[in-house]
Each structure stands twice: as C-alpha cells, then as structure tokens.
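Lecture notes, unit on protein representations.

Consider one protein chain, 347 amino acids long.
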Amino acid sequence: LCTDSARVLLPKIRIRAVSCGQQHGISLDDKGGAWAWGSSAKGQCGLGSKDNIIVPRRITSIAGGVNIDHLQVKMVSAGWFHSLMLSEDGQAFAFGENNIGQLGLPESEESKILTIERRIALESNAALFDAADKELSNRRIDEIIQAHSVANVVYTPHLVELSRSDSPFKVTAVAAGGRHSIFVDESGAAWSSGLGTDGQLGVEKSSLSQFVTLDGYYSNMPQRITNLDAVTVIGAAASLHHTLLLTRQGRVFTCGSNDSGQLGLGSIIGMPGTEGNALWRPVFVKALRQFKVTAIAAGIKHSTYLTSDDQLFATGSKGPTGLAQDSDVPKQLSEFVKDGHAGEGGG
C-alpha cells in the first residue's frame, strides 16, 4: 500500500525506493531526492513542522536551514516515528522522535534535565511530588513524560556521526527499526542506538542506560556492535524488537526478540547471550549457510531473505510471511518464485 501510494501521489516522479513507518512514508527518486508524506507530529517527515503532509513533499533542507538540493540521497528508512536518510557521500541524517535515543543524536540539556526528573519521578512512584495525592503525582509524571517527548522531537534532518573524532566514519547503510536505528560504516562495522530492551541493539546490556519503565534499556548514542569484528557488514534491516545484519559474504546475523521465531535460529532458550527469548548479541543464521543472501527484510514478527539464486525464505509468524504455519527457522516461499525470479513484495 505504501509503495502504491507513492506511485499515485508522485505520478511524474520515478521512484526507486519506499519505506513506511506507523503514520508516514518516505521515498527516494531516481535523481537522489527524498520525499515524505503523512503524519509529522513527531517530526518524522523532516520538513520542519508538525503539520500533516497530504501530498508528498521533497526534503530540501537540513538543520540550520542548509539547502540540500545538491545532496544525492541513496537510501531512506522509516521507523515507527522517526526516519533515516543516507547520502551518496556517506552522510547519515536522522529526524523525528528521539525520546529513547533512536536518532543517535546528542541529547539537549533540556532533555537531560527532563530525563533525570522523569526517572526520579517514576522510580519513587511519584512520592517526590506528593505522596498523599497520587492523582496529582501521576498527573505530574504525565506532564514530565510529555515534556520529555516534546524536547526530543527533531523536525529537520540532523547529521549523525559515528565517532567523536575530527574524521567521523562514512556511512554505507542505514535501517530504522520501531524505536532503534542501525548504521553501517565504510569499514564494515555496524552501530546501533535507541531502544534495546529485547537485545535488538546487539550490544551488552551493561553498556546501556536503563529506565525503570516499559522503555527498559536504551542507548542515546550509536554504539559499535563489537562481536561482528570478524565479518564485513554491508546491510541491515530492523523492526520493533529485532535486527538483521547482512555481510559481504552473504551471511545473515540476527539479534533481539525471538518470541515468534523471527530470528530464524530455532529455539534460543539457554543459548549464550540470551535472556529467555531475547538474544543480546548477533548470531549467524546457520540454516541459510548454503546460500548467499543478497537482501533482507524485518517485520514485527517475521524476517525474510532473498538469495543470489532468487529463492525467497521467511521465518516467524505465519500471517505476514505467507507460511502455512509459524516457523523458527527459514522456510522457502516457493509460491513467490516464478520463472527463476522472486516476485515483488513489500515490507
């Protein structure tokens, strides 16, 4: 539906790629232009306002009002309420909601103060404000959380840097998950930021910050996924609770929630680096070892993989995958393979 919308709303523009979030879409044209439409209440359209965008508009400027007509965009990716954009010269830009670090941008001072207030209020069960009047206390917590969200909305694309040195890494791929982001740099390393409660960031829990709320564990700034140093990552796909990483050799590594078998690893209970059905470090999907995977996609409860010989595999919940039943290991979707080529699909 998202792809069809882009074609209908941009009939004279040749679309190369489309990505959709919860309430917005972002597309890439054949001249390197990025277009956005839908809700921008949390800045996810990157057009400088929170107005709904009925007809797709081209993103023409970045933070500070700098015009980017000259910028050639080569990749776009939409999360739930945030978006990522990658230029041909290796610059990654992020915009939208950043209340849990999903943009990989430094927190503002206002945001840091609100984060501290929010944590104190929640951890003390509102006793800080008025232990005798819980309704008033809870109202104050709601005000803090709302202010925290407002302080962490980015309405125009901001540059994401993967190091703090004078010469940051160039970025070669980006993927926006529900509330986290993955960045791949020119050296083949993968970086992650945002929500990591289910292990979807692929880093040790000890390196993450913690809210004593449903938000759980998170990282405000991109962290390098260190246990992939022996491979060269070239691509990524991310959903709400899990992440896929593709290497130059055509291998797939995965981490995060496996509650529906979406990691493709079979049962992970008791596996090193796991807590229940959450895998905290990327693991090789051995079931695909005889294939060279060329493309990957992640849905909320499933994953799909396209191989070099045009075979399409899926794992996870049967509904979105087209599988006859749920599967915790990749199964071939033969009905999507016609005349030796995988049929078109959208995620």
